[in-house]
Amino acid sequence: MSGDPLALGAFIRRHREKIPPLQAGLSASGRRRTSGLRREELAMLSGVSATWITWIEQGRPVRPSLPTLDRLGKVLQLSHAERQHLFHLAGKSDPQTEPRPSAVAPSLLHILHTLQYPAYILDRYWNASAWNAAAATHFIDWLPASPVFGEKLPNLLEFLLLHPHARQFVDDWESRCRRLVAEFRADVGKHLDDPEMMRRIAHLQSQSSTFADLWSAQDVVEREGGLRVFQHPIQGRVTYEQNTLLPAAHTDMKLVILLPYPHEDTRPD
């Protein structure tokens, strides 16, 4: 995640000038050119130097740490949305306010089980958090028909890279692996401060030479839909059009839907 030093400096200065000293716990005695905090005051309250505040407000690439951003957010009394924006401008993910993996919302489950075609929900680690009956029928080696509480959630990358039947099941397996690992890397950029994410990446690197090679390639692409071909052990060749939806209120999750592909004869090479 890349930051924007100029925008970050302007944002901090604007909010510094909006905080009255009394509201920040300081006295307002003496003549002041601004009704807000001075740079020296913001520096003192945030535990940094006045020079550092000057540099960051000038848009220099000073790379503030997560604890420093946290203190700035508190001193500036930022709202949830403002705090998220502060971290975003610094090129960081806020570990306190970023949604963590959680149970799937009832509204998403309702959508999932209303669909008659294969559909599943991925969390930030690309675990399948929930899926419908059609998905269990299609992904018989990945998604169990009846999830057992307390068992490890089935992971899409582990299935694709480690399951012995995945190569035969997924058409053009090597290309799909290359694409999915590049898409996963794009997701990981939002969770670099998550130790569990780093542990899972290390596990895949140690268990799959394919993942290790693709991960070291540093390819990054956005997730996209399109034609998906499978060699189903019972149904034979099955063709779908994949669509991925990102719920606005659940940004750590993806709803993946496989719809019948209408024009297989015109599919791309």
What does this structure look like?
This protein is α+β, with helices and mostly antiparallel strands and 269 residues long. It folds into two domains: 5-89, 434 Repressor (Amino-terminal Domain) (Orthogonal Bundle); 106-266, 2-Layer Sandwich (Beta-Lactamase), CATH 3.30.450. 41% of the residues lie in helices and 12% in strands. It contains twelve helices and five strands. It has helices at residues 5-16, 39-46, 50-57, 66-75, 80-89, 106-114, 133-138, 156-162, 166-169, 173-188, 195-207, 209-216; strands at residues 119-122, 128-131, 226-232, 236-245, 254-260. It has a five-stranded antiparallel sheet. A hairpin with an 8-residue loop joins β4 (236-245) and β5 (254-260). α2 crosses α3 and α11 (195-207) packs across α12 (209-216). Mean pLDDT is 87; it is low at 265-269.
Report a brief summary of the structure.
The chain is an alpha+beta fold.
Which helices and strands, and how do they pair?
Layout: H1 5-16, H2 39-46, H3 50-57, H4 66-75, H5 80-89, H6 106-114, E1 119-122, E2 128-131, H7 133-138, H8 156-162, H9 166-169, H10 173-188, H11 195-207, H12 209-216, E3 226-232, E4 236-245, E5 254-260
